[in-house]
Amino acid sequence: MSLLALDVGNTRLKWALYEQPVMGARMLAHGVQFLENIDKLTEGDWINLRPPRMVLGSVVASDAIKRRVEAQLEIWDAAPEWVVPSAAEAGVINGYDHPARLGADRWVAMIGARQRLLARQQLRPCVVVMVGTAVTIEALDAEGRFLGGCILPGHGIMLRALESGTAGLHVPTGVVKPFPTNTSDALTSGGTFAIAGAVQRMVDQLAQHCGQTPVCYMTGGAAWKMAPSMSVSFELVDTLIFDGLLAIAHQRASDRANQRLASSTQ
Ligand SMILES: Nc1ncnc2c1ncn2[C@@H]1O[C@H](COP(=O)(O)OP(=O)(O)O)[C@@H](O)[C@H]1O
Ligand SMILES: CC(C)(COP(=O)(O)O)[C@@H](O)C(=O)NCCC(=O)O
Ligand SMILES: [K+]
């Protein structure tokens, strides 16, 4: 049973077709589109795609974007399912005050991270960093409890905010330097250090809280930009959200199979 996994962020839609809804399944095809180009998926990227049997997605973009994605999915029989963060799922316990108000991408990425730790039998505390339009930094304890997390502006938003709020900060992109000596480098370095510093702080807080050094996973479209400037050790995992979607899809598919079995034996 093939699975089309969707990750709809505030900037881009990421998709991947898997052979089966299980962790470690073979990825048959994948792609990414900026949100302004999502109305052409069925006549473009998806034109020759083998019809998926199941479609599971995470969406944090607007309802209008979600409807436009659903319109593209109408060519296939499988009705799209969207993850809604709950109190607990696939090895993660949700500590948010209102579990459903947590971003679905954050929830799914934490589930992906937890599944990776479970697969390695490394039940350690974990920090999950996503560098996309926004940056999110989550803390999970060794039992898979999501203790809480931070939201920061991403690189682009930080720079645009500074540009629009000042008269003298309209400059080209610079490079990251320990001691920047021009405006471009000062801005680029400032944004990068803000993110790297926030991650380090969360790692320190979690280490102190749990009495154990956390594993740190980093993902997202702009993660590669952060990688050379991080002050803590981390693993870059491009597929963290897809890993989480596979775990949730696996759970749902086996629940349904069990229900069918129960009703057929009644
Ligand atoms: N090809 C690229 N070149 C430079 N930056 C990129 C590129 N692709 C993505 N990014 C950065 O990654 C961000 C989008 O990452 P993504 O994880 O897709 O975000 P979201 O999930 O919020 O849509 C952009 O805001 C941009 O900063
Ligand atoms: C924090 C986010 C904007 C991140 O979005 P992204 O950068 O992935 O596009 C998204 O997860 C979201 O809208 N969250 C809802 C609020 C919350 O998580 O508390
Ligand atoms: K994201």
Automatic annotation (TrEMBL):
<comment type="subunit">
    <text>Homodimer.</text>
</comment>
<protein>
    <recommendedName>
        <fullName>Type III pantothenate kinase</fullName>
        <ecNumber>2.7.1.33</ecNumber>
    </recommendedName>
</protein>
<feature type="binding site">
    <location>
        <position position="133"/>
    </location>
    <ligand>
        <name>ATP</name>
    </ligand>
</feature>
<keyword id="KW-0418">Kinase</keyword>
<keyword id="KW-0808">Transferase</keyword>
<feature type="binding site">
    <location>
        <position position="183"/>
    </location>
    <ligand>
        <name>substrate</name>
    </ligand>
</feature>
<dbReference type="InterPro" id="IPR004619">
    <property type="entry name" value="Type_III_PanK"/>
</dbReference>
<dbReference type="GO" id="GO:0004594">
    <property type="term" value="F:pantothenate kinase activity"/>
</dbReference>
<keyword id="KW-0173">Coenzyme A biosynthesis</keyword>
<dbReference type="InterPro" id="IPR043129">
    <property type="entry name" value="ATPase_NBD"/>
</dbReference>
<comment type="function">
    <text>Catalyzes the phosphorylation of pantothenate (Pan), the first step in CoA biosynthesis.</text>
</comment>
<feature type="active site" description="Proton acceptor">
    <location>
        <position position="105"/>
    </location>
</feature>
<comment type="pathway">
    <text>Cofactor biosynthesis; coenzyme A biosynthesis; CoA from (R)-pantothenate: step 1/5.</text>
</comment>
<feature type="binding site">
    <location>
        <begin position="103"/>
        <end position="106"/>
    </location>
    <ligand>
        <name>substrate</name>
    </ligand>
</feature>
<feature type="binding site">
    <location>
        <position position="96"/>
    </location>
    <ligand>
        <name>substrate</name>
    </ligand>
</feature>
<dbReference type="Pfam" id="PF03309">
    <property type="entry name" value="Pan_kinase"/>
</dbReference>
<keyword id="KW-0067">ATP-binding</keyword>
<comment type="similarity">
    <text>Belongs to the type III pantothenate kinase family.</text>
</comment>
<dbReference type="GO" id="GO:0005524">
    <property type="term" value="F:ATP binding"/>
</dbReference>
<keyword id="KW-0963">Cytoplasm</keyword>
<keyword id="KW-0547">Nucleotide-binding</keyword>
<dbReference type="GO" id="GO:0005737">
    <property type="term" value="C:cytoplasm"/>
</dbReference>
<dbReference type="GO" id="GO:0015937">
    <property type="term" value="P:coenzyme A biosynthetic process"/>
</dbReference>
<feature type="binding site">
    <location>
        <begin position="7"/>
        <end position="14"/>
    </location>
    <ligand>
        <name>ATP</name>
    </ligand>
</feature>
<keyword id="KW-0630">Potassium</keyword>
